[in-house]
Amino acid sequence: MWEIVAITVLLAFAFTFTNGFQDASSIAATFIASRSATPKAGILLVTSMSFLGAILGGSAVAFTLTGLVLLPSGDKTLTVLMISLLTASSWNLVTWRFLLYGTGCISWGVRNINKDKDAVEEEIRHAREAYNKMEELYISGMADLFRTNDAMHALRTREIYHHLRDAGRAMRDTLDVLHNAVIDLA
Question: How far is Cα 20 from Cα 1, in angstroms, rounded to an integer?
């Protein structure tokens, strides 16, 4: 029993880290890409607001959910929680893997845009390949949903695939901006 508790707590920390890492980077990228803030100011603002949000209102959602969902306590509930956290953390890592490669290409391209435009275009091509893999995953996942008879499972899974697609399309839009910048500087 205590082993399951320890694993569940570790998985909760892992999920919190991977989820927060992705959310914070997306929010900071929006600030910086729109030129609303410098990179340093954008990261500082996102970091401080995330910290304040956790301190001031972080438990509000948890308390709301505990009032809506009544689960019996026991080994089975803990096991379900552990499997849910494992699944959510795994999903974060899968999407992170695709997005990390693409954003790494974008970052390298931005740093080197004035040095080697051909190499930047090559990085853009590599990042587009990562985007295409994400799009293929989305399409095959959605196709699988049409084969299921469980409507609730299909709705939940559809939502996950839509988040993956949206993240990939945001990366694609950023690649388009970088590509246009390379063309403008040529």
Answer: 29
Q: Which residues contact 112 (CB under 8 A, 6 or more apart)?
A: 119, 120
Contact at 8 Å (CB) between 8 and 85? yes
Residue 37: how many other CB atoms lie within 10 Å? 16
d(CA 70, CA 65): 9
Q: What is the pLDDT of residues 45-86, one digit of tens each?
A: 877 887 777 777 766 666 665 666 666 777 777 787 788 778
pTM of the model: 0.53
Where in the chain are the domains? 2-185
**What's the start-to-end Cα distance of the chain, in Å?**
64
Fold adopted by 2-185: Methane Monooxygenase Hydroxylase; Chain G, domain 1 (1.20.58)
